[in-house]
Design a protein that fits this description.
Blueprint (H helix, E strand, L loop, with lengths): L7 H8 L25 E7 L3 H4 L3 H11 L4 E7 L3 H10 L17 E5 L6 H10 L15 E5 L15 E3 L3 H12 L7 H8 L5 E2 L4 E5 L5 E6 L8 E2 L25 E4 L1 E2 L9 H5 L4 E2 L2 H15 L3 E5 L9 H11 L6 E3 L7 H11 L5 E7 L3 H6 L6 H13 L4 E8 L6 H22 L4 E8 L16 H14 L5 E5 L2 H12 L4 H11 L12 H10 L4 H6 L13 E2 L4 H12 L16 H4 L16
Parallel strand pairs: 1-2, 1-3, 3-4, 4-5, 9-19, 10-13, 13-14, 15-16, 16-17, 17-18
Antiparallel strand pairs: 5-6, 7-8, 11-12
Helix pairs in contact: 5-17, 9-10, 13-14, 14-15, 17-18
């Protein structure tokens, strides 16, 4: 295996032929450069999309900092080049390389790939192939890097299980170090023996040691361990307390999606929105103390020179110290013109207060995510906000000087009717009229509607995808009725949603379809300008899968689901109860107000203080 760096002159010769050559040169401020021969384990961290997105992925920032803090570990980064640079590398016969040392990715001991969402699956194959690594785990041996997958996409990794050696289920900070400790003593052994040595590590899913079986109807019967040491169910790993935030965060060479410092102020969410996979798989909630956040922000600003910091959370306003935290930050950095962003706020007056504190006179756009147009449908999805309350908050937003309000909705939610689409239209017009009456003709209302995909480990995992005719008819209705000055509408293509849903909900038989789509030319499935729908359609047509059954058949309550052997900590029986509540239009209160017996308390004993109580589980 060639471990020598690619000469800089060879790379430089390609850069004048591509857009944004700064994506491919490395040398970012705060990048870590360790001597290759002085470390025992070399890990390549990969995000299978372009630099602009990968540099904004905070999970990779955490792991980069964590691994390089270990004296015997070297960690470098790679991202999937844009199509123009891919063509240049292939034309020159060069492999994918890391940005720190320009060494081939295939020279590393371990390749850890972020599987953040389903649209990265074909990109993952492109990344492996560009690196010169065999796609399928069965075709690799101990001379190839150990391929590890992590991220939210691993909560149903079955559609890409054949391409990975190991999946990390849950939060990686502790389990990744445990994996390295178990792997290093056996790294000289054949790959089968290496993987068997990893079986005792909690939170690792090794597909090689599990076999799916199917019923005569074609439905999944079971996913069964083939080795006595392989656990029948893998429980996700979680960090009892949030680890320290990386201080020396990378400063990118070119403008990226989120070019700012990041502090994770809270992990998990207690809201219980039934459509939200992130909220389900990141439970329980863990907060970072406000005093620690303030000192961390100060340290990051000194180490990076950033002038903006994002306080990262699924629901920032739910942090118990959010208001005093913001007051402390504004006071501490009053003379530094620091911009503070809260990526996720609830629809309430308190959120407007928080945004007002941070705006410092700047009034750009304000964002709400009602998700559904009517009160009844919002109850079904457990989004506890009434239309009148939403309008009252919108009025407050306009009164305080904002002139653009962005509203996010989903189409195809379980139980949705045409009346719910009419409610979106009416709500948008009501908000627009409010804005006109307060802020005049400069007021704009931007409406974005995405098509809902039922995701694993949520109460809606039993629900079908809405069919094309229904979704496109409702999109047409929105386009016809949301016109005129001050109104803008954005929507997504059903073809892309259909592939996302298939990959989100599929089983191991989809591996062949993913590979066929990639070989047909599918890449960058999340990008409208690069997505190759024809490649997917051909792959699906050539398969013997019943695609309509996979997408549009409601799942039976007792049916075996492809991800049932992987546990997010939230038990299936709770999800089923909550699905029934949705069908009855029943709200479920924020679990900070009282335990609803989701399973977290029993699956993670010892993490909880005395005020936590779950009578149903006896905890």
């Amino acid at each position: 295996m060639n471990t020598q760096p690619i000469p800089w002159e060879t790379i430089e010769a390609l850069l004048h032929r591509v857009q944004k050559p700064g994506r491919y040169v490395g040398g970012e401020y705060n990048a870590v450069h360790k001597p290759w021969d002085a470390t025992a384990v070399r890990v390549c961290l990969a995000f299978p999309d372009i630099y602009d997105l990968g540099m904004s992925n905070f999970a990779l920032t955490i792991l980069y900092d964590l691994l390089n803090a270990q004296p015997e570990v070297l960690a470098e980064r790679t991202y999937l080049p844009a199509p123009d640079m891919i063509a240049q590398l292939r034309g020159a016969g060069l492999p994918l390389y890391t940005l720190e040392s320009y060494r081939p990715v295939a020279a590393f001991d371990i390749l850890a790939i972020s599987v953040a969402y389903e649209q990265l699956y074909t990109n993952t194959l492109e990344l492996l192939d560009l690196a010169g690594i065999p796609l399928r785990a069965a075709d690799r041996d101990a001379t190839h890097p150990l391929i590890i997958g992590g991220g939210h996409g691993t909560f149903n990794p079955e559609p890409v299980a054949d391409f990975f050696d190991v999946f990390v289920i849950g939060e990686a900070e502790e389990v990744l170090l445990e994996l390295l400790a178990a792997w290093c003593p056996v790294r000289h052994l054949p790959r089968e023996a290496q993987l068997r040595a990893l079986l005792p590590v909690p939170g690792l899913y090794i597909p090689r040691f599990y076999r799916p079986t199917y019923l005569p109807t074609g439905q999944l019967a079971a996913v069964t361990p083939t080795d006595p040491a392989a656990p029948p169910r893998i429980l996700k790993r979680i960090m009892p307390t949030l680890p320290p935030t990386p201080i020396r965060q990378l400063v990118p060479n070119v403008e990226v999606t989120h070019n700012r410092a990041v502090v994770e102020i809270q992990r998990g969410c207690t809201r219980g929105c039934r459509f939200c996979q992130a909220g389900a798989v990141t439970r329980p909630v863990r907060e970072r103390p406000a005093a620690e956040i303030v000192e961390t922000v100060a340290a990051i600003l000194d180490a990076t020179g950033y002038e903006e910091v994002a306080l990262l959370s699924l629901s920032s306003a739910d942090h118990s110290e959010i208001k005093p935290l913001l007051e402390a930050l504004l006071e501490r950095f009053r003379g530094r013109h620091l911009s503070i962003s809260l990526p996720s706020l609830r629809i309430e007056s308190f959120s407007v207060d928080l945004a007002d504190m941070l705006s410092q006179g700047r009034r750009s756009g304000f964002t709400f995510a009602p998700e559904a147009g009517s009160d009844a449908l919002r109850r079904r999805i457990n989004k506890d906000i009434a239309t009148q309350d939403l309008l009252a908050v919108a009025e407050e937003v306009f009164t305080r000087g904002w002139r653009t309000l962005k509203l996010y909705f989903m189409l195809g939610l379980p139980g949705e009717m045409d009346e719910d689409i009419e409610a979106i239209i009416e709500l948008a017009h009501q908000v627009r009229r409010l804005g006109l009456s307060i802020g005049g003709r400069k007021t704009e209302v931007h409406v974005s509607v995405s098509t809902f995909v039922p995701k694993p480990h949520t109460p809606f995992q039993w629900a079908p995808l809405a069919n094309r005719e229904t979704v496109e008819r409702r999109q047409t209705l929105l386009r016809e009725r949301l016109r005129g000055r001050g109104l803008r509408l954005a929507w997504n293509h059903y073809d892309a949603t259909r592939i996302e849903a298939l990959l989100a909900r599929g089983d191991r038989r989809l591996n062949a379809v993913v590979e066929a789509a990639w070989r047909n030319g599918a890449r960058f499935d999340a990008w409208d300008e690069w997505r190759n729908q024809a490649a997917w359609e051909q792959a699906l047509a050539d398969s013997d899968l019943d695609i309509a059954d996979a997408l549009y058949r409601p799942r039976a309550e007792d049916e075996r689901l492809p991800w049932d052997h992987l546990c997010s900590g939230v038990e299936k029986r709770f999800l089923l109860r909550d699905y029934r509540r949705s069908q009855a239009g029943e709200l479920l209160a924020d679990c900070r107000a009282g335990c609803h017996a989701c399973g977290i308390l029993v699956n993670y004993p010892g993490m909880w203080t005395a005020e936590w109580e779950c009578p149903e589980w006896g905890v």
